[in-house]
Amino acid sequence: MNLFDDNFVKDLPRQFCQRWWELQVAWHLKNTGCFIEHRAKGPDFICTKNGSRFYVEAVACECGVDLSSDSVQPPKWQRLKPGETEFIGPQSIPECERREILRFRNSIGKKTTKYRAFLVDADCGVDADVPYVLAISPIRMVLEAPLVGSWNMPSICKAVYGVGATSVVVGGGGGELSEVRTEHRPEVRKTETSSPVNANVFAPDGGGNLYDKISGILYSETNFRICDYPYADDALREEFVFCHNANAQNEVAKGLVGAATEYRAEKTHGGYVVRREVVS
User: Fold this and answer.
1) Which residues of the chain have pLDDT under 70?
2) Selection from 174, 34, 146 nearest residue 90 by Cα
3) What is the pLDDT of residue 109?
4) Could you give the CA distance from residue 240 to residue 56 in angstroms, rounded to a whole number?
5) Hey, how many other C-beta atoms are within 10 angstroms of the C-beta on 222?
6) How far is residue 178's CA from residue 43's CA, in Å, rounded to a whole number?
7) Structure letter (DSSP) for residue 6
8) Percent of the chain topping pLDDT 90
9) Which residues have CB under 8 Å from 246's CB, separation 6+?
């Protein structure tokens, strides 16, 4: 089964991160039970699993223009000695976090526009009633170092659910973790005087109908270094999470995209809560 056209090989040296991510997504989908097709025009993959179809469009987020207010530091790899590599991370937090959100939102916006173009192009053959999933990778960016603990959400949640800074309350003589608090941050700005960018587009009523064509986001912070280890297939699956869009016209069933962890925002009295679910 040929999932890639001649342009894939031709673009590989110039767009390595993007093409590597497409390979990673195809591997994940196939390994978790999807039958995958590829057409010359339209979304990257047409997937079928358990009788359900969905489209997947993969994107490795760009870093942005150097020194601009929404650019992020590209990954830097320093060769120490044969077989060892050191990763140089971000220096400024939360400034780096704000820029990450803006880069995620930039990719989501571009791919939403691209999908609407697919719908009106008869050659793409895209069905408006079939779920449309974005597969997003931050491999081109340096992310804020995550806090240790299963309660900490992945970076993509900050761009779609309005998740802000996380703080912990430690109590008891043994220093046990007694409470985790997360602030609500529904928007960020490129500059102090620029218009706000909505950061809760997947929360109930958060994105209106601007992003209701996006069913959700398949996300992984997997990079070349992680994949260089002899991981078992199920271990690499653990690297993938899925964020459901509460406003989606076409919802994705639990477990359909094969992510080990899924997030969704649900309405509560006076607001909403983001729930995390481990999928077996």
Assistant:
1) 1-9, 11-13, 64-94, 142-152, 167-180, 224-235
2) 146
3) 93
4) 14
5) 20
6) 45
7) H
8) 43
9) 202, 203, 204, 206, 264, 265, 266, 267, 272
Residue 206: predicted pLDDT: 79
Q: How far apart are the first and last CA of the chain?
A: 28
- CA 102 to CA 1: how far, in whole Å? 37
Strand partners, 240: 220
pTM of the predicted structure, to 2 decimals = 0.83
Rounded to 5 degrees, φ, ψ at 117 are -70, -35
Is residue 201 a contact partner of residue 211, using CB atoms and an 8 Å limit?
Answer: yes
Two structure tokens written together for 254: 């639990």
Q: Return the SS3 of 177.
A: strand
pLDDT single digits (tens) 21-34: 998 999 999 999 99
- Cα gap 246→203, rounded to integer Å: 6
225-241: buried (b, 16+ CB within 10 Å) or exposed (e) per residue?
A: eeeeeeeeeeebbebbb
Dihedral angle over CA of 230, 138, 239, 97, nearest 10: 130
Residues with Cβ within 8 Å of 112's Cβ and at least 6 positions away in sequence, in order, are 210, 211, 213, 214
> Maximum distance among all alpha carbons in the chain?
66
pLDDT given for residue 227 in this prediction:
52
Model pLDDT, residue 91: 40
135 burial via Cβ count (<10 Å: 0-12, 13-18, 19+)? buried
pLDDT in the model for residue 171:
61
Report d(CA 274, CA 111) in Å as an integer: 24
- Cα 229 from Cα 101, distance rounded (Å): 29
